[in-house]
Design goal:
This protein is α+β, with helices and mostly antiparallel strands. Helices cover 39% and strands 11% of the residues.
Length: 874
């Protein structure tokens, strides 16, 4: 018997594949949102959710109908119907494969960006196993039911035809013989069926017209119709006018009158890129025919202006923390170099790992109770270098301080010294390169999908551009400078040395135009995967191991490059700015073959803990690598003159955090936003800051440190002092202000003096009481990967958090982080009014009022960022 005897006839099988794929896709689509749908409304409107699917099935059945077999029309019809079936089958398989990997559903509108990016395609191909498995299951089920399904739907179509066509003769007789009783001429069964059909049609039409558009329009979408979103390609352009300014919704912003433009005295004649808003007058821009810098309604420039920013709260008028001020006066803090380390998927709960966090509790729950003491002892040793960098020392199961003697680096700083450690920091985006814009350039990212910022001018100078500016102004200046930046008699020789900015990562920089972003930020030198691959075989720069993931190599392959750069800083009268992004902690969480992995997870619970265990091992690997970097600073002799800034780009959600959804893509869970933020210097007092700050504070803090530690010459200090107020973030060497108006609130700080006794640096602690609309508060925004669908909103003075949807298909989500720090019980609704209605009985009027404010501010922020960036779509 031939194998082909077991194969089904092609049209019935293709039709069965179409029905199977379409309906299971719809079931998944609805199931992901079922918890946020009111039960009665869902029951009432559920028939309307499958109308599009029924239409697709009807069209597919007609196209795959046996009619005049062998004719050209039959072949054409089968080809079109087959294409429809195969496209739906493939799309449904991708949806289920993606869901199995992340717990989320595919946003087809964003798929175009991935398909056009070779590096991004490697990410998609990692899920090919689950996609193939889903496709196989769909095909097998379709094969099993194809004959019955094809026959039943055919009979259904015949019944519909007979309903509207078969009764034609009776109706004709009725009309042509009016003198006979109409009851005798009517087919009662046909009339009954017709009445039922008409009633069903009218009812569905009524429900379709009267149902709320949100969320039912989104839920009713059917494959393959929703695939059309993938072809709506949007691209950024600088042509045209910027978004008009929206009035700030909560209070009257202090808008200043238009000031006559003047070129600042500190700006050199030919500044590097990044300073055009100070260098080029509006008139010159108009002559260059670049209207994107203007608001067409008013003719005003569309630049960011801190004087007109209703969200900006400056703490530059406040004093520096007293122990820091004393250290600066004693000239004990010297900053010749800056190293900015960005930790891929760097969760604060693991920097360092210690008891008392929601994540640590979730990890322990994977172990049986009798094994939890050992699990605690293993987990608190996971990131020893992070303990020393932050000063947050963990304790074991017996309450004793963890022994860190086996770490790859030993801290040489005196007790009570080490720098600033920020608790409460949040990322500005769960998409890596958008978050880097905050840490490297002090700007909020553009609230659109993917890295569209690469086609626009970054609206603030980035760190490499600032250091390049310092290089260009090494010349005497006029007197009459502010006293704080007058030339010092004991000015070190190093302040006259030029800066060198280098970017390093061991993976590709091709993904989502990162290479363009690095160039736009001002990096002229870089070491990336291409650099490693070009290294001559056998040289000290050639990679010693294989690529560990679809992006590239492990960080340790960069060691000779980092070593050379540090030695150059030590020997060649060069000041370095090194930006390094780690990558091993990115999916798929692989480590080099010679790295011994450990088992940190138990077998309890319903979650497969394998992925989390792999992630924890990569965290230990990167912690070791950070120890290597700190050791190289010590060995080259520049540790005492180097400021090391450590920040996470975003977190990483797992099933242990949220069983419904994992990963960062379209996942607003708080575990994706809490990140470490550390400013390490061995001669700075250890200060533990509690503040809901973001990476926007990194550049202001670095500039403030450089100025007050006398690590810049007179001219550079003048520039830094002039630019510092232009940035949106606050300096963290001063008490953080979370709100002003009513009763001002500040972040809190614990400072360890040399005797290790904590002293109170600032009071009171932030109040959680909601303030009236005249209060100006620090609002923090975090774009949710891929950037244009949702935004996370918090304010520094409250524990409340709102996920604001920016397009249809996404829900409002509220959490009270003081009550639910792990966001185990978020409140989700499809409208703001529903959310407020649910929040009031549980939490009261305060958070409900805050939610309404947050929604207005969030919408204003999205429009304002598009205006500032000069973003338009075409």
């Amino acid at each position: 018997m031939s194998l082909f005897a077991f194969l089904p006839p092609l049209p019935p099988f293709l039709f069965s594949v179409l029905v199977m794929s379409g309906l299971v896709s719809k079931a998944l689509h609805i199931g992901l949102h079922i918890r946020s749908l009111p039960f009665l409304y869902f029951v009432l409107y559920s028939p309307t959710l499958i109308l599009q699917d029924l239409l697709v099935i009807l069209v597919g059945r007609l196209l795959l109908q046996y009619a005049a077999p062998g004719t050209r029309l039959q072949w054409l019809s089968t080809c079109v119907g087959g294409l429809l079936s195969l496209v739906t089958w493939g799309a449904a398989s991708i949806q289920f494969g993606f869901f199995m990997q992340t717990g989320a559903e595919v946003a087809w509108a964003q798929s175009n960006s991935f398909l056009n990016d070779p590096a991004a395609m490697k990410i998609l191909l990692t899920g090919i196993t689950t996609v193939s498995a889903a496709a196989t299951v769909f095909a097998l089920v379709a094969w099993m039911i194809h004959s019955y399904l094809y026959l039943l739907t055919g009979l259904g179509l015949l019944a519909i035809r007979d309903l509207f066509v078969g009764g034609y003769k009776a109706r004709y007789t009725l009309l042509s013989v009016p003198n006979k009783s109409w009851l005798a001429s009517v087919d009662l069964r046909t009339a009954r069926r017709s009445a039922i059909a008409v009633s069903v049609f009218v009812s569905l039409l009524f429900l379709e017209l009267t149902r709320p558009s949100i969320p039912y329009d989104h839920l009713s979408g059917a494959l393959p119709l929703t695939l059309m979103d993938a072809f709506h390609k949007k691209s950024v352009t600088v042509e045209g006018c910027r978004n008009p300014t929206m009035n700030f919704p909560l209070y009257t912003a202090g808008k200043v009158s238009s000031e006559k433009w003047s070129r600042p005295a500190w700006l050199p004649q030919n500044p590097p890129p990044g300073f055009s808003r100070w260098d080029i007058s509006p008139e010159e821009r108009a002559e260059k025919d670049n209207p994107s810098w203007y608001l067409c309604s008013s003719g005003d420039p569309g630049f960011y202006n801190p004087k007109q920013d209703p969200l900006k709260i400056s703490n530059l008028g406040g004093g520096i923390y007293e122990p820091l001020r004393k250290a600066f006066e004693e000239n004990s803090v010297e900053i010749d170099n800056v190293v900015l380390l960005t930790l891929e998927s760097g969760r604060k709960e693991l920097f360092p790992a210690q008891q008392g966090t929601p994540m640590f509790d979730a990890l322990l729950e994977s172990h049986k109770k009798e094994k939890r003491e050992k699990a605690i002892d293993d987990l608190v040793k996971l990131t020893p270098v992070a303990q020393m960098l932050t000063g947050e020392y963990a304790t074991d199961s017996k309450g004793e301080k963890v022994d860190l003697s086996n770490a790859t680096w030993q801290d040489t700083a005196e007790e009570g010294m080490g720098g600033l450690n920020v608790r409460g920091a949040l990322t500005g985006s769960s998409l890596t390169f958008k978050s880097i814009l905050g840490s490297h350039c002090g700007v909020n990212p553009l609230p659109v999908d993917m890295l569209e910022e690469t086609g626009l001018e970054i609206y603030q100078p980035c760190l490499p551009q600032l250091f390049e500016l310092f290089n260009e102004v090494k010349s005497p200046v006029e007197p009459n400078l502010p006293k704080a930046i007058e030339a010092r008699d004991d000015e070190s020789e190093a302040v006259k040395y030029p800066w060198k900015s280098v970017f390093m990562q061991s993976i590709t920089d091709d993904y989502d135009r990162q290479d363009v972003l690095n160039e736009n930020m001002g990096f002229k030198e870089k070491v990336v995967k291409k650099t490693l691959k070009r290294a001559r075989f056998g040289s000290k720069y050639a990679p010693k191991g294989q690529e560990i993931n679809y992006f590239g190599y492990a960080e340790t392959e960069l060691k000779p490059y980092v070593q050379d750069l540090f030695e150059e800083a030590a020997n060649n009268k060069t000041r370095i700015f090194l930006s390094h992004v780690t990558s091993t902690t990115h999916h798929p969480w692989n480590t080099p073959d010679d790295f011994k992995t450990e088992s940190y997870m138990g077998d309890e619970g319903t979650v497969n803990h394998g992925l989390m265990n792999n992630y924890l091992n990569t965290q230990r690997f990167v912690d070791n690598w950070l120890g290597d970097i700190m050791t190289m600073l010590d060995e080259t002799g520049i540790a005492n003159s180097t400021l090391v800034v450590v920040v996470g780009d975003h977190g990483q959600a797992f099933g242990e955090d949220n069983k419904d959804m994992t990963g960062t893509y379209e996942n607003g869970h708080i575990s994706n936003f809490r990140v470490p933020l550390v400013f390490r210097h061995p001669h700075m007092p250890r200060i533990d800051i509690t503040a809901n700050a973001t990476s926007l504070s990194i550049i202001p803090t670095i500039l403030d440190l450089l100025v007050h530690s006398h690590s810049l010459d007179t001219r550079d200090a003048e520039i830094a002092s002039s630019i510092l107020p232009e940035y949106q973030g606050q300096s963290l060497i001063r008490p953080f202000i979370s709100a002003i108006g009513g009763s001002d609130t500040h972040g809190s700080a614990r400072i360890e003096n040399p005797d290790s006794h904590p002293i109170d640096a600032r009071s009171p602690r932030p109040t959680h009481k909601h303030k009236d609309a005249r209060t100006q508060r620090v609002w923090n925004f975090g774009l949710i990967n891929a950037g244009g669908s949702m935004v996370s909103i918090t304010s520094a003075d409250t524990p409340y958090r709102l996920i604001l949807p920016l397009r249809e298909g996404f829900e409002y989500v509220f959490t009270h982080l003081a009550e639910d720090p792990g966001e185990l019980h978020p409140m989700k609704t499809w409208t703001l009014s529903e959310l407020v209605h649910e929040v009031i009985p549980k939490f009261g009027e305060d958070p409900a009022s805050w939610i309404e404010d947050a929604e207005q501010v969030g919408k204003w922020y999205v429009n304002e960022q598009r205006k500032i960036w000069g973003y338009r779509e075409k």
